[in-house]
Known about the structure:
Elements: E1 5-9, H1 22-28, E2 32-37, E3 51-53, H2 62-79, E4 83-87, H3 89-101, E5 106-111, H4 121-137, E6 140-143, H5 146-154, E7 163-165, H6 188-194, E8 198-203, H7 212-225, E9 229-234, H8 245-253, E10 257-260, H9 267-270, E11 275-278, H10 287-294, E12 299-302, E13 317-320, H11 325-337, H12 339-356, H13 359-374
Parallel strand pairs: 1-2, 1-4, 2-3, 4-5, 5-6, 6-7, 8-9, 8-11, 9-10, 11-12, 12-13
Amino acid sequence: MFKPKVFHIVTVSKSVILMEGQIEFLNNENYDVHLVSSKGKELNEYHPSKVHIVNMKREISLINDLKSLVTMIKLFLKEKPRIINSGTPKAGLIGTLAGFITRRPVRIYTVRGLRLETVTGIKYKILYMMEKIAMFCATDIIAISDSLKDKIIELKLVKENKIEVLGSGSSNGLKLEKFDLNMSDIDSDIKQSIKDKFVIGFVGRITKDKGISELLESFRKVNNQHEESVLLIIGSMEVGDPVSKYDLDFIQDNPNIIHINHVDNPINYYNNMDVLVFPTHREGFGNVSIEAQSLQVPVITYDVTGAKDTVLNGYTGYIVEKNNINAITDKINYFIQNEDARVTFGRNGRKWVFENFSNEIIWKNLLNFYNRRVK
């Protein structure tokens, strides 16, 4: 039986996790799915015949980008994929442009976020131009959340009839059977330090863009009122967009703040949190938020692109105005003072996530999308 050849393209191999399980599902549904990415250990899990190396730089680099484009064009001319699906900004540009030049019939740009939302000046203009070219060269745009779709249209990057959100959104959904409420074993010292405390959680890169400064300021206020509160931060310090020395010192010196570098599987830590604060300034779709809710942890997030799609306001958590530290503080205090509400919100969140964001739901929506394009 003929299987349409599909190329899924990401800039760096670490992004392959965004499609975990998806490749195998589509292969089982009579598609011949290949991966295209820069070199990396994450590609070792796939058969060499289904992996193609095109080295790409995440940052703007004209000479390297031209080399990547030429390599991608040669690959497409040789392999002749029916569908190309490019995600992440650089892969989106190079993949769709190469697909346009080689006249691939289905050229999909999966937009997983807009970096330009939180930059200004010449960098904004360059990123805007890159997005505009990628979307012009694509035959279809998939946005991974409704608010991301709205933002793309608002910025006049593409017309509405060219863009679609699959189901309730999300890049790949969750493997729900992994999210076990009974998994709570963590380091014994950490376990002891949070015993009988109200645990405020944060999971993500420690950067300004993730709202860490507002979270810390809010925690100062909460901790002054509720000494039994602790802040559990899980994430690595980033060189790009770093936090201030003042904030860094506060994280390191405050005995009520526990910082753990990035962990591959945060489920055990979610199960030791009472609330997750997710004050990101922009997302494509906030996986951290739905992961927490799948484990009955209410979420407080900002009314920003990609984050506001992940919380049912007043039902599974709260959506507050961006940079409104007092609003974050008030909502944390509400959950501290209202245990019954916290439990109810948590149960609501788990039910909502399980009904809308399983891997299978996302994959079937993508399969239907592909089926419509290859008829």
